[in-house]
Amino acid sequence: MSYLEYNVARTPAGLRKVLAMHWALVLLICAVAAIGFLVLYSVAGGDWRWVAPQMQRFLLGLAVMFTVGMIPIWFWRNVSALFYALTLVLLVAVELIGSTGGGAQRWIELGFMRLQPSELMKVTLVMMLAAYYDWLPATKVSRPQWVVVPLVIILLPTLLVLKQPDLGTSILLIAGGGAVMFLAGVHWAYFATVIAAGAGLVTAVLQSRGTPWQLIKDYQFRRIDTFLDPDSDPLGAGYHITQSKIALGSGGWTGKGYLQGTQARLNFLPEKHTDFIFTTLAEEFGLIGGISLLTLYLLIVAFCIVSALRMKDRFSALVTLGIAVAFFLFFAVNMSMVMGMAPVVGVPLPLVSYGGSAMLVLMLAFGLVQSAHVHRPRAQGEGRILRR
Amino acid sequence: MKRNAQDMTLSARRISRRALIAGGGQLAFGALLFARMRHLQVDQADEFLLLAEENRIKVRLIAPARGVIYDRNGVPLASNEQIYRVSMIREDADDVPAVIGHLRSLVRLDEEELQRALREMDRRPHQAVTLADRLSWEELSAIAVNVPALPGITPEVGLSRAYPLGQDYAHVIGYVGRVSERDIAEAEEVDPLLQTPQFQIGKIGTERQLEDVLRGRAGARRVEQNAAGRIMRELDRTESGKGADVQLTLDAGLQNFTQARLGQESASAVVMDVRNGDILAAVSSPSYDPNLFVEGISVPDYARLRDNDHRPLHNKIVQGLYPPGSTFKLVTLLAALEAGEIGTNETVYCGGYTTISNRRFHCWKRGGHGRVDIAGSLRESCDVFYYEMAQRAGIDRIAAMARKLGLGVRHDIEMSSVSEGLIPDRAWKRTNRGEEWMIGDSLNASIGQGFVLASPLQLAVMTARVASGLDVSPRLVRTIGGVAQPSGVAGPLDLPRSWLDGARNGMYEVVNASGGTAGRSRFDLDGIKWAGKTGTSQVRNITAAERARGVSRNEDLPWERRDHALFVGYAPYDDPQYAVSVVVEHGGGGSAVAAPAARDIMLYALSGGVPPLDAYPDSQRGEIEERLSTLDLDPSVARSGGTTKA
Known about the structure:
The complex is a heterodimer of chains A (388) and B (646). Chain A has 388 residues and is mainly α. Chain A contains 14 helices and three strands. Chain A has one domain. In chain A, 65% of the residues lie in helices and 3% in strands. In chain A, a hairpin with a 2-residue loop joins strand 1 and strand 2. In chain A, helix 3 runs parallel beside helix 14 and helix 5 runs antiparallel to helix 6. Chain B has 646 residues and is an alpha+beta fold. In chain B, strands 2, 3, 4, 5, 10, 18 and 19 form a seven-stranded mixed β-sheet that branches. Chain B has a five-stranded antiparallel β-sheet with strand order 12-11-23-22-21. Chains A and B meet through helix 7, helix 10, helix 11, helix 12 and helix 13 of A and helix 1 and helix 2 of B.
């Protein structure tokens, strides 16, 4: 216990930690998950086949969150590098032994669930970067040699994920990692340079089409085409986005009513229980339903930020903020995608889309937020009731 | 290690600042998402709602039952019969080959049809595809009993057109068939019904001419369909409107008798009510079974009909054009009377021929008729008399009279290929032949030869007009949907009674006077007698070589070069009701072949059934009895005669 900056004496101990959890955040998370159950029941055509496993996973996720939250945040800081390294090994492992599913090698079969290391990496990367900046004196943050290190930390897993290939997760890793660097205070100029370089890379990728050194796969090119002009191929590659927009738009202000969404029920929607689940919510509950979910999401992000502002140590603050930004990226990219504002890259809607790994990893992440919240340093008199 | 306080403060301030910036950025992007959501769900909601409805709602048409066609007494001539078919939804069949194999053990399946159905099922696995059509009741029952063992299979009942009296109506009513590309191309406004599978459309005859009223109005089922095309539920339904029933003026009994009486001759007959234009019978023989065409006739069957030299597919009633021969003398006579070129008691000398410009025009009687009056000219069908009339009246007057009597004009009845025929005049010859009219042309035309062409229907109209003195046009349809159609009478014919009486008297003598050309075809049905005119029209010129060889008798010629036999008549003579025309292609002579047939048909019409023997002259009864007893009449419509309707 060498981290004397934590006023251990003032943090709750034992089961009192449960009371010190960020309960508003827990309630928001449960509310979002409940919306997810509601919509999953509907897209299954009034059937429990997706809701039941999703509920089990969510309960498991809650247990994970509370468990992680009970463990002191400094423990998590100490194991960040180890977790990051382990996740990297797993990423390499899926390359070698992973099953092939959907044209991409993404998971390792664990028997009771399928583990997607790329999902796990979304959290461990944030942890790793937070731990790095916690270790690095604040004055060195913007020095070039200390900027290269986190870049390597980010790009290593990103390239492995891109090779799977999973473009959506790669983008989230870069964006999430970049966000932590930004939050840690890396100089503006670096971001300007990266954005410029990114623009150059996009140009290069587009230029590479049809050449022997083509940088991304044909289906990814087609997704870009479809994004730019979905009407060009309404029954082929543009089908997803066209049907998605029809479902959304036809919802109107108040929606068609619960279990009345024709687009999902009649199978016009693709991936209706995973990536495109938001469209069914918007179709059945209309603009009101969509905005409600968006508001809940933004509240989760806001609560994380507010919680982070009260933390005095860099790791807690950066992990909390990094997870908040990553969470924001998940739903922002997904919603942009189904609303035709971004290409279809295969990003699920957090806490709502059907899927095990994403749900558990997200709950693990919120566990870290809870841990940081529970174990934050407290001023004199604050949290007195929590102390013995 | 205690943290450097300065370092902590620096980073805390920095992180807080950046966190607020990030938070602000997220809020801004959240607002952008909201704006986009609002744009899609509020501004464009109507458009997307429409697209969503188009996605899920499909309209399935319900075919209406076609209107039934009846005869004047309510006998169904074209009706709808239930047919049994079996269809399959591939998605519901677990093991398609096994199901088909099982089905094959129950009913015969046409291999070609089956392959087509399988291909269709590949494309639309959620939709019912017809596997076999026109199953028997036994086959359908066998399937129905085994349905639990045949997943995906549905026995169905549909409607198809049927013609219970088959060949009697092939030429008048025609038939329906599957909709072809041409039908769709020809339709002015494409009824979506035409696109429905198994739909039948009138192809020819009344079925085609009255397609609009017979077809009916499509009903519709609005159904909800999923992305794969499977029907989830029915939203609502508008029932179809049955097509209007049509009642024809035809009499099924008389039509059947007439068809049977003409037998396998290449012939045609029309019976018309002179008082209102109703067509009681219109027959072209030989005929064929229109039911063969409903589901598509087989190639050998079609070839047999097409290659038959008696042309069963040809509608001789309205499409068959013949030189009317001596029946046309009625026209020439009335034209000459109208021109004032002959007095009612005037006579013309027949020496066997007339010489014009060094060319001899022969009378059929080589020795000549001597002095001939109007009645005699018709009775003995003297050609020279009419050569004289033609010279006096001129072709244009003859042509005008012919048109007045209904020749050379198209009678608009609900049959296919109704022909105008041909009544030549000076203008016609100049336009069509580029030659001036010659006097010889007039002489040929005066006896219904040369360019003159008329259909059996037109000859019946001519006879009806002469008999009734009315401007009567043929009428085939009596009621449509219960609404009576206008009578065929437009008014009086505008010819003085004395002229018509002259013609009628001559026609009476043709049948009833000694020396009349149709004297053998007289009858006396409880005092009712008839009048008529024979015609024999050459289809060739007798060559000089033939004349030298002495080949002039029809029986010695090959069938297709023999003369056409014609007869027109009406009865009763003193109160005309019915007109009849009979044309027997290559039959030889009008008096020998056409007149006896016309008499049997007329007697059936008058007596309302098979003619009573006592209406015929004593000497012919044995022969008649045998002929009538061998006729192949349809028992469902045949009536025994003996009662006088007249």
